[in-house]
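Long-time lurker, first post. I've been practising inverse folding by hand and with some scripts of my own, and I keep getting stuck on stretches where the structure tokens seem ambiguous. Below is the full token string for one chain I'm working on. Before anyone asks, I'm not after the true native sequence, just a reasonable design that respects the backbone. If someone could post their per-position residues I'd love to compare against what I wrote down in my notebook.
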């Protein structure tokens, strides 16, 4: 009979193996593309058999879906980490969130290449399209939550449709600057994209410049 500690160890071990296979998949896609990242290639990179991969992921399509979801989820979690700021105002937390999205490790040529590879297939692959939609909505929900806090601090009470509008616009601002940073980061001075992003988003939200801020 398994003890609770043994069952927990087994669950943790299985989850670790799944994550290792997802990492091997992302590395294989980065090197070989979606077609070249076969189960055999992924298995060799992970140091396991293709049969073991099928134990965790019944098909390559499911493995690719999980890998893409992990890629998008990782970026969202990295940005959310910037929100953990003690005694910071909602506006400062928003600025930190935007800054995190427009700097390393989220701005990264390899991450962009992987994202572009997956998104290029999403239009014809329902599983990748579903992963993209879920990742997009997950990030947009985080944006809505931050925006709601900022506007509440400004004594404003937007309705759900207004929050949705702001989140869509802010996501577009961040996405556009993220692409620029990933493709041609050397063209921008340190912090330039984040500064542009913050000012653009503050304008979208109708926030007045803070006292002491350069006009």
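-- Answer (accepted) --
I ran through it position by position. Result:
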């Amino acid at each position: 009979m398994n003890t609770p500690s043994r069952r927990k160890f087994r669950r943790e071990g299985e989850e670790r193996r799944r994550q290792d296979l997802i990492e091997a998949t992302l590395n294989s896609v980065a090197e070989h593309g979606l077609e070249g990242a076969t189960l055999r290639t992924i298995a060799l990179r992970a140091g396991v058999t293709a049969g073991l991969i099928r134990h965790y992921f019944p098909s390559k399509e499911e493995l690719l879906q999980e890998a893409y979801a992990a890629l998008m989820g990782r970026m969202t979690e990295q940005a959310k980490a910037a929100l953990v700021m003690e005694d910071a105002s909602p506006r400062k937390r928003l600025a930190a969130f935007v800054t995190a999205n427009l700097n390393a490790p989220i701005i990264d040529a390899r991450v962009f290449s992987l994202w572009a590879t997956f998104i290029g297939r999403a239009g014809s692959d329902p599983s990748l399209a579903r992963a993209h939609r879920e990742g997009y909505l997950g990030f947009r929900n985080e944006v809505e939550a931050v925006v709601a806090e900022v506007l509440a601090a400004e004594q404003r009470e937007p309705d759900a449709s207004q929050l949705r509008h702001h989140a869509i616009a802010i996501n577009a601002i961040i996405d556009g600057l993220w692409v620029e940073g990933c493709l041609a980061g050397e063209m921008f001075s340190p912090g330039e994209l984040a500064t542009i992003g913050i000012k653009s988003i503050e304008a979208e939200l109708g926030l007045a410049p803070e006292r002491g801020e350069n006009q």
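A couple of notes from the structure itself: Residues 4-36 form the longest helix (33 residues). DSSP finds nine helices and no strands in the chain. Happy to go over any region you disagree with.
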